Amino acid sequence: MKIDERGRAKFRPTNDYSSEDVKQVLMEKIKEESGRIIQSSKDEEILNSIKREKHKFHVVSLFSGCGGLDLGFDLAGLVSSQQTPSILEEVYKSKSNFDRLGKQNIFQTIYSNDLFKESARSYKLNFDNEHTVQDPRDIRKIKYFPYADVILGGFPCPGFSAAGPRLIDDERNFLYIHFIRAIIQAKPKVFVAENVKGLLTLGKGEVARQIIEDFASAGYKIQYKLVNARDYGVPQIRERVFIVGVRDDVKFSYNFPEPTHGADRKPYVTLEEAIGDLPEWPEDVYEGDFSSIYLSRNRKKDWNDQAFTVQASGRQAQLWPGGERMKKLGKDEWGLVGTQNRRLSVRESARVQTFPDWWVFDDGSSTSVSSKNNRLDKQYKQIGNAVPVLLARAILQPIADWAKKEIDHQIEVDKQQAQLSLDI
User: Fold this and answer.
1) Extended beta strands in 136-216, E state
2) CA nearest 29: which of 144, 170, 195, 151?
3) Angle at 269 (CA atoms; ends 267, 275), nearest 5 degrees
4) What is d(CA 30, CA 180) in angstroms, rounded to the nearest whole number?
5) How many whole angstroms separate alpha carbon 393 and alpha carbon 68?
6) What gap in Å lies between CA 345 and CA 419, rounded to an integer?
7) What is the pLDDT of residues 134-184, one digit of tens each?
8) What 3-state class would DSSP assign to 130?
9) What does the alpha-carbon distance between residue 354 and residue 91 come to, in Å, rounded to a whole number?
10) Which of 192, 209, 239, 407 has its C-alpha lying 20 to 30 A from 277's C-alpha?
11) Which pTM was predicted?
């Protein structure tokens, strides 16, 4: 609950609720929100168009963006099916390798949802999967979601209610509410949600506590953890929260993987290793002056460092590490030194987010005429909002390994049943 005290926002915990109380409040809110949605022919059309391949784990992707989380999950599925990490090298070499190997994947994404046109086009261009149905509607207008084995998505960070006893009473949390609604409808064995670091500290931890309670009341065992992307081979300091839910009746215990990079492990991947081979003066760079706000802090890392967190904005993109370091002039004031001061390019930013070089980011030019900066900004936005691919792969690998065992078991059961039929 949020209160005002001498003009400053203060937080205090809400009253304690039993698990049954939480479930009742949640279900009433879900029912209320569902009642506001008018069913359209689009709902039936989408559900009827979904085609499921046998012996696959079927995936629903919400807030899919340009596909960082989804690509990471696909890579986890390929590694699990091939039992060798070298598969990653093949995928990163070419899209044709990715398309060819994708047929062996244990995961099939049957449905993706994102209302941002450029992100949706990027998703389609790169995955190019005829079995994935794309839904461009606002999630608040989708009446029914298809059942699935896994749901992925990064719901936006919620607001904090000043009036109601629970997060779901705050209208700013409609996307969070509908994420839970999708889970309740689709009944996945596992769901994975990603969010910003601030989720854990918002309201002195009260927001995170309520979110975990709400997910648990939907019938899931919850694990969550703050992780840093650079600990998993990403050349970037990027802290994010992952929430993993396993349905109460599913016999699977998820454990977050140990970091692969850092102290006593593999060395962190540097900017030099990640982008050092790219052209010094590329075309895909956001241009323009640097504001005083931008220059209020250091924006340039050295080649042997990891990048700052990639921003979802061309204007706010960090500086290319070449040239001289920035100079501190005073409190909240830094200066540029020398002439080699440009922002990271679109492709450099994508490399820092560990996207393959063949990954295409739609710039909106097919539907509108705009300036170079505006077109590039649409690409920077998609990249900055994405989950780093190799981070997603690492976090999702335990799920892929378990899913592979489940599929192998089902294949064996089907063989035995087929043999019994022949014997009869």
Assistant:
1) 150-153, 190-196
2) 170
3) 155
4) 8
5) 9
6) 58
7) 999 999 999 999 999 999 999 877 665 544 566 766 666 678 889 999 999
8) coil
9) 12
10) 239
11) 0.92
Q: How many CA atoms are closer than 13 Å to the CA of 297, on its beta-carbon side? A: 5
Known catalytic residue at 66: no
Token pair in block for residue 242 = 């992952």
Q: 3-state SS of 312-367? A: CCCCCCCECCCCCCCEEEECCEEECCCCCCCECCHHHHHHHCCCCCCCCCCCCCCC
Residues forming a β-bridge with 222: 245
Whether residue 100 contacts residue 192, with contact meaning beta carbons closer than 8 Å, is answered with: no
What pLDDT does residue 172 have?
Answer: 63
CB 208 within 8 A of CB 202: yes
Rounded Cα distance between 244 and 409, Å, is: 23
Catalytic residue among 62, 157, 234, 243: 157
Q: Is 102 exposed, middle or buried (0-12, 13-18, 19+ CB in 10 A)?
A: middle
Look-up: residue for tokens 């909240």?
332
